[in-house]
Amino acid sequence: MAKRTEEVAGEKKKEKKGFSLKSILLILVLAMVGFMGYNFLKQSGFLAPKEDAPRKVRAKEPIIYTFEGNFLVNLADKDNLRYLKTVISVALSNQRAEDELRKKSVEIRDAIIMILSAQTSEDLATPEGKERLKNLIAERINGMLTQGEVESVYFLDFVMQ
């Protein structure tokens, strides 16, 4: 019988060689706390790799095209001889639109001159009139482009006399 109790004690010792329930729970709790701490640090930006900083979403830089020279036109005023001198730039949607605009620059300059010379000084005296002129120019150019579009029109110089 002494052998029997020794065998039972030996089996219990063999069973105790594994992890107890308390130690397994402790390991799980520590792992969860570590995982939560890692996620917190990662989301707060402390663990972000230095390489990712430039990859953040950047605003798409527009392609700006400035027409060579200025536009000098007589305005459509009936009473006085008035003229408009302006320099125009446009923001384009893509590189293909810029390439197409360069190829069609003669036709587009002519269209802009026709639009400008149809205006009166009264039309262009207000900010609303200038905005309307920008919209007219953008619409006309967009009607001529097939590879992209004009997103904005900018006056770099605008003198009426």
Task: Give a topology summary.
Elements: H1 2-16, H2 21-44, E1 63-66, E2 71-74, E3 83-92, H3 95-103, H4 105-117, H5 121-124, H6 127-144, E4 150-160
Antiparallel strand pairs: 1-3, 2-3, 3-4
Q: What can you see in these coordinates?
A:
- This protein has 161 residues and is an alpha+beta fold.
- It folds into two domains: 2-55; 63-160, Tetrahydropterin Synthase, Chain A (2-Layer Sandwich).
- It contains six helices and four strands, in the order ααβββααααβ.
- Strands 1, 2, 3 and 4 form a four-stranded antiparallel beta sheet that branches.
- Helix 4 (105-117) packs antiparallel against helix 6.
- The longest helix has 24 residues, at 21-44.
- The protein is rod-shaped, with a radius of gyration of 37 Å.
- The relative contact order is 0.14.
**Total domains, how many?**
2
Distance between the termini: 123 Å
Q: Based on DSSP secondary structure assignment, what is the total number of beta strands?
A: 4
CATH superfamily of the largest domain: Band 7 domain
Could you name the CATH topology of the largest domain? Tetrahydropterin Synthase, Chain A
Shape: rod-shaped
Low-confidence stretches: none
